[in-house]
Write a structure and sequence with these properties.
With 325 residues, this protein is an alpha+beta fold. Helix content is 33%, strand content 25%. Strands 8, 9, 12, 13, 14, 15 and 16 form a 7-stranded antiparallel β-sheet that branches. Strands 1-2-3-7-6 form a 5-stranded antiparallel β-sheet. The chain is globular.
């Protein structure tokens, strides 16, 4: 379904900023709200909030729906590699999940040396670092160059400063974030999921560049994949057919994710510190289009926009599914 720029602009004031459900245990992250359900379950509601540089920058229509439905699509396709927390999707913006204890480490898998954030490989490399995340990098690498093999570069969740803090793989165990056996299982699962993601992305004409995974443990000790998988929020995607030519000429790759927003802000000297600069509303129209485009490219499905405003629809959907009284 084609959505006009005018229609997206008209929806900007009604973008889904926050859920307000009569359920206990409400908590909020950068993008998601979650609530306690009986029987060891949770309701995760994905809003339209857009964050970058660990800051919330805007609300973008349909972004939450894309994240929720695309993550569910990937959870289904990776379930034979490692189980996940999804139970059902009662609404376009909501997921019913098993309650787990999240591990305090984000598992970043990188296939290329790129990025402009403080924890990105290329940013650290461009500052002269050659020992990054416990890996040794030779001199002479170029921005956006493919690594010989994907690597895992973990970070803390927030850390003492409120920003993600870099870890080496060894430090994950040495500092007591995870036990060795669990960390080995998670690393193996992360690389397997990334390899599958690269295969599917390539068949869709895209390159899965890097991504973030999160894992948690159930009450009975099982390790599950949680949060989201291979979405434009958690992953970087490039256009496959133009990558090589643009790499050789030193041009930035054609991207399908929200990296263009990071670049937009970075080009204006903003990397997350202080007040972000004002931007044109057309930037958020572009963001909306990119989220929908990547959903359709990866899944091969047509994106069907759900009804706005979201809160009344969400309330109605949950009552129909018996998740609200």
């Amino acid at each position: 379904m084609t959505i006009s720029d005018t229609a997206i602009l008209d929806l900007l004031p009604f973008a889904f900023k926050s859920s307000q459900l009569p359920l206990p245990g409400r908590r909020s992250g950068k993008v998601r709200d979650w609530y306690t359900l009986p029987g060891g379950r949770r309701l995760i509601v994905t809003t339209d909030r857009l964050s970058a540089f660990d800051r919330s920058l805007a609300v973008v229509p349909y972004k939450g729906q894309v994240l929720n439905q695309l993550a569910a699509w990937w959870f289904d396709r990776t379930a034979d590699l490692i189980p996940n927390h999804i139970l059902s999707l009662p609404d376009a913006n909501a997921a019913e999940v098993l309650e787990v204890m999240p591990y305090p480490v984000e598992v970043i898998v990188r296939g290329y040396i790129t990025g402009v954030t403080g924890t990105a490989l290329w940013h650290r490399y461009s500052l002269g670092e050659r020992e990054i995340y416990g890996y040794s990098f030779k001199s002479g690498l170029k921005k956006n160059q493919q690594l010989e093999t994907p690597i895992i570069t973990p970070t803390t969740k927030g850390g003492a400063t409120g920003h993600d803090e870099r870890l080496t793989c060894a430090e994950v165990v040495e500092k007591g974030f995870l036990d060795a056996a669990s960390w080995d299982q998670i690393q193996a699962a992360a690389l397997a999921i990334f390899n599958l993601g690269q295969e599917i992305a390539r068949s869709a004409g895209m390159i899965l560049v890097d991504t973030k995974y999160e894992f948690g443990r159930t009450a009975d000790g099982r390790i599950l994949l949680i949060d989201e998988v291979h979405t434009p929020d958690s992953s970087r995607f490039w256009r496959l057919d133009t990558y090589e030519e643009r790499f050789v000429t030193g041009e930035e790759p054609d991207n399908f994710d929200k990296e263009f927003i990071r670049r937009y802000y970075a080009d204006r000297g903003y990397r997350g510190e202080g007040e972000p600069p004002a931007v044109e509303s057309t930037l958020w129209v572009q963001a909306c289009r990119r989220y929908i485009h990547i959903y359709e490219k990866l899944t091969g499905l047509e994106f069907i926009p759900a009804e706005y405003p979201v809160n009344p629809r969400l309330d109605r959907s949950l009552r129909e599914k018996g998740l609200l009284a």
